[in-house]
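Page 42, continued from yesterday. The earlier attempt failed because a stray header line got pasted into the input along with the sequence. Redoing it now with the clean sequence only.
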Amino acid sequence: MRKLLALWLFLPFVGMSQTKNVVSVNRYFPKVDKVQEFEKALAAHAQKYHSGDWKWRVYEIQSGPDAGGYHVTEGPNSWEQLDARGNLGTEHMNDWNKNVAIYLTEKGSSSYSVFQDSLSTVALTDYSDKISITHWFPKIGWGSKINDLIKKMKKTWQADGESVAIYTASSSGPAQYTIVTRYKQGLKERATGFRKPFKERYEAANGEDSYADYLEVVREYVNNGWGELLLYRADLSSK
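This time it went through. Structure tokens are written below.
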């Protein structure tokens, strides 16, 4: 009985330690005249070496400063899984270096993001083929202000049935909140008139004149921000 009780007490800690909420993100930029070769090699690599917990979802970046690049997400995983992953193996790295990397420019980035369930209106793995990403970089020491603001934004999204996933950067450059809008009905959700203006919806969810407070927080506590559109490429992703 004592052993069984000890097991019951231990289980909650196991559950917490294995939360799969970490996504690794790599951005690749092929040479202009080698896009087709790069896509073919990337798809072959993803399907051979990235399955299960290490599966890839590949998006083509359509707009913004990284337009023309490819956004590759791996996971989600737990930090424990990443810790135990170890070396990717000689065969894996040789395939990447000899068959994929040869088509890349020197531009690129790698990062880790942690999904924030309490700020999101959609489950981590409830994906969409068309998304927009807004990158917000809070001023140092003021992340809590942005966190509280996104909680109010969540009320607005929930009221209108918007699918929004929130991530925070982890040891990956400046502090960042990544706001990912998943267009379940397609890009028509962006059209004027599809939903009421954000100001009107925000005040309906958070009270009269609350939009003025929203603007003040953004103005005073967001250091920088930018956005982009991305389209999912099933043909380049893990099967």
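Notes: The chain has two domains: 20-114+232-236, 117-225.
Reminder to self: strip header lines before submitting.
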